[in-house]
């Protein structure tokens, strides 16, 4: 620090402190203080002598003067308005002329916003610290943050004057040709930063959509490493480096002693596993030997344990059905992570549930150890939490994996949870829960209907009581449809009371698959010689082509292929049921019933079943 500037630095501290605690007493010094700061910050001669600490103090002083409420008179000036406030406001406005404001904004953006060589070195060596840099009061201690806060303060206070200046700078950048010169790139980055900070104020001035499409997209496609790294990942190109990458990361992981370092390496390893998918299989044995050891070493370092669980989850996805060979490590890991009696569950629960779900999805058969884990899930259901979505997804995976063993062993707590939650949780939660019940009835129509009888009764009552069409009602009706289609003798009396509701509210079903299910269900009722209603619909719904090919995907596909909704032609089913009705009711009764149907509907029905 030059000796001549030391007194000024101390003076700046004194001025800021005085202004913040005695703003009106400070008002006679407003113009002189602003001029002092302007000279050293924004003139070529002043910048030659200034140093960072003094520059920071000058920026802070300008900022606190600009934003001081004591220097802002009321909109309607009255005789009672203090003269000190008016004089302070006049002094501030006299200094900030349009020319001065324009120069300050240009200097801030072009001289203080661009990244320095030190900034670029930090980006290279520790980018996380730059990205994670905390805001809040950092402007009081960091020059870059302080210049950005000063820029926004001037924009807020003098918007009509500052906005055109910023807009003009943006237009100049928009019209400039692409360049790989670092100085040009840094200047452009500074203007982009200014635009980003002020975006809230610039929506009426800048067409951001056109700017993005016509220029920014092209700049992002610039492959020059000086501008931006290539973020596109091509697995085929990466495979030649896979052995070396895994070997180096694994060696580095084993050599590291610091838990935070291990955590960062694991995050990178996890990302690589996520990108390469099943190509991780050749490296699974070494990972499966080391990860249990690392888990034991992690001790009370909860964040490292979270990273281990997350990495193992990606490993399970990559291994698929082969992950069953790791059950000796996976299942105890899931048990510890999802046990709410363990203090560590606060950190591990979410990742542990995700791991549990992926293990089930990639399992080919159920085991006693997998079933034993359900004790933890029962506690979570009783406790109630924000993780209900994945909890019910886990239950559904159990049902699809082995419905007989699962329903025989642990159906009671699931039924109790359904009974306690139905009608008492939000619509989204009700949909998730009801889809589990629907899956149970699909995979086990007889046993599932028997075990979930109380749940079905509650659903039937809720259908009768509902007064508006909702997605939840659609699923309730489809559950009824599954019961009618697969197990109607036991529920015919209840179904008859619901049939009218099915007829009235079928139009609220938008998915063709669900409309067809309702038709199949009600056509099944026709031969029962009961007063049921006939509905017509049709169509099937395509499966999701983007679903991952896990073991559970195969189970869902097999369930779909055996589902009458997908494997039974609707026109043939309706025709056969009508013939069955004709045989059961007799010619006269059948004709009498058909005469009650609208002639247009009868014509369409004839065309449909004889196409």
How would you characterize this protein structure?
This protein has 611 residues and is mainly α. It has 35 helices and no strands. It has helices at residues 6-21, 23-26, 30-42, 44-49, 52-67, 83-95, 98-112, 117-125, 127-131, 143-157, 159-174, 182-197, 199-202, 208-220, 235-238, 242-255, 259-276, 284-298, 302-319, 327-337, 345-361, 368-372, 374-383, 388-401, 403-421, 427-443, 445-451, 453-465, 471-505, 512-525, 551-562, 564-567, 570-585, 587-595, 599-609. The protein is elongated, with a radius of gyration of 35 Å. Mean pLDDT is 81; it is low at 225-231 and 530-547.
List keywords for this structure.
Importin-11; single chain; elongated; mainly alpha; 73% helix; 611 residues; 35 helices; ARM-type_fold
